[in-house]
Write a structure and sequence with these properties.
mainly alpha; 2 domains; 0% strand; globular
């Protein structure tokens, strides 16, 4: 039995989780230019539409387990028996609920109707989610454990895509590769499990006690999915041309990739915040919150303005001909990077660990209603562009409601004070990036030059403004260099 080390390093866990989240996204990101050209917008639209339907069944089968389970494991992370008992109770409940959802999915979509072949393949996507126990390791703050095996699986899937997906009719092969990479990736994490749990008498398991709190988190999970998945479903249902779903899907992949960088800290902070809350240390909670706001805005502002500045050159190079509409969608939808970064800190890092699910639920339900209404209005007239506008409005609604609900706990003026430097630096960076881009031809080198100039300008401005994150980063680098020099001198 492995003893959990007290207080794993947050910075290291952020890096581990960032790597993990990037790996999850890196496969579609690396293969997108190839698949866009081989499969085309319509086939990718079919893929996105059928996967969005499957996601609803995964949602209903999972209830709110992952978020709830991570928090519950964090509460008892130092007690071997309690974490083992909690694990078995949750995994049994998850198996029952996802098993029921799988049965309904098969009956409704796998026996008759359109795209039946693809839905049968997606059965394994639901099974893959039943095997997902990443929440257990996240609750223990052991993020490194889930990385290496997934890297191998994802690399193999990339190789398989380039080897076996050669033309439009190979869409089913792409489905198989996507589904089984997730399946085996999740299965691989089970090999680490015996080191962290012990045997528990099955008669002492209390599975029922978890249903009520899980259902409490299920409502916001439904709402979140409404404004993250329903947009694609509604485009596919309202617009006859499935290419519109393809434009939206490909645009979201880029924005989600950037979002991963900005919000990966959230997953790391949930167990830390939950553990701190369990000990009643309110001052430490505020300290973590301020640091989180500073870090996510440090990343979110330049990521948002950066992708807008290069989108006109990036889309034709990355996606190829036929995806020009994605230029406008990416530019329109990129502000959600900032909105979700804020709501991630408030909702995921604070409200959930501190058992304020009601406030979290209110915020995301407001976002879901907003998203549905604006989708209904805008998709009919603007198609995928309308969905992008609706998503931005919904995400800022969520963030706005959350700020209002915690106004007595967290001062929004302090958040503005923490983040204003990053906004100013990003605006200057944005203008200079556009100017540099206008001087260079539209090619891949131009994008790299814009990126490098943007990074240098952004960090330089923050250094001049004496930003704490930059100054602390420089100090860490100096200490590291001094340490390396000293060790080299001692070995001579």
């Amino acid at each position: 039995m492995v003893k959990i080390k007290k207080k794993n390093n947050i910075a290291k866990n952020y890096i581990y989780n960032l790597i993990y989240q990037l790996i999850v996204i890196i496969v579609p990101l690396v293969t997108t230019p190839y698949l866009s050209r081989v499969l085309g917008a319509e086939q990718i639209g079919i893929y996105s539409y059928t996967l969005s339907i499957t996601t609803y069944f995964i949602l209903f089968g999972s209830l709110g387990v992952a978020m709830y389970a991570q928090r519950e494991i964090a509460y008892v992370q130092e007690n071997s028996y309690k974490r083992s008992k909690t694990f078995f109770e949750i995994i049994i409940m998850r198996t029952i609920t996802l098993g029921s959802s799988l049965l309904l999915f098969y009956l409704f979509f796998c026996l008759k109707g359109s795209y039946i072949t693809y839905y049968k393949i997606l059965v394994f996507e639901i099974l893959a989610n039943a095997l997902d126990i990443s929440w257990f390791f996240q609750g223990l703050e052991e993020f490194k454990k889930v990385i290496m095996r997934n890297i191998v699986v994802k690399v193999i899937s990339i190789i398989c895509i380039f080897l076996f997906v050669k033309e439009q009719k190979d869409l089913n092969i792409y489905f198989y590769i996507y589904v089984f990479s997730t399946f085996f990736g999740n299965l691989s994490t089970w090999f680490y499990l015996p080191k962290y749990i012990e045997k528990v008498n099955i008669k002492k398991l209390e599975v029922k006690k978890h249903f009520k709190p899980v259902v409490g988190l299920f409502i916001p999970q439904i709402a979140i999915q409404i404004y993250t998945v329903l947009d694609k479903t509604m485009i596919g249902a309202i617009v006859s041309d499935k290419a519109e779903v393809g434009y939206y899907e490909q645009s979201q992949k880029i924005v989600k990739f950037l979002l991963t960088i900005a919000t990966s800290l959230g997953t790391v902070m949930v167990p830390r915040m939950a553990n701190t809350y369990a000990k009643g240390n309110k001052e430490k909670l505020k300290y973590y919150m301020n640091n989180s706001f500073a870090f996510v805005t440090f990343l979110a502002f330049p990521l948002m303005f950066g992708i807008i500045s290069i989108s006109k050159k990036f889309v034709p190079i990355f996606y190829g001909a036929g995806f020009e509409k994605a230029i406008y969608i990416i530019s329109l939808i990129s502000p959600i990077i900032l909105a979700i970064a804020f709501s991630n800190v408030i909702g995921t890092q604070y409200l959930i660990p501190t058992k304020q699910q009601k406030k979290f639920t209110i915020s995301v339900v407001c976002g879901a209603i907003t998203n549905f209404v604006f989708n209904l209005i805008l998709i009919s007239y603007l198609k995928s562009i309308g969905a992008a506008i609706a998503t931005v409005i919904a995400e800022f609604t969520v963030t706005g409601v959350q700020f209002y609900l915690i106004r007595k706990e967290i001062n929004i003026v302090n958040v503005i004070k923490i983040s204003y430097k990053y906004f100013i630096a990003s605006i200057v960076m944005f203008v200079i990036s556009l100017f540099v881009g206008s001087l260079i031809k539209n090619n891949f080198i131009s994008i790299i030059v814009q990126f490098l100039v943007s990074v240098i300008v952004y960090l330089s401005i923050l250094y001049v403004m004496k930003d704490n994150l930059i100054l602390e980063g420089i100090n860490i680098i100096k200490k590291f260099i001094k340490k390396e020099v000293k060790e080299n001198e001692e070995t001579r």
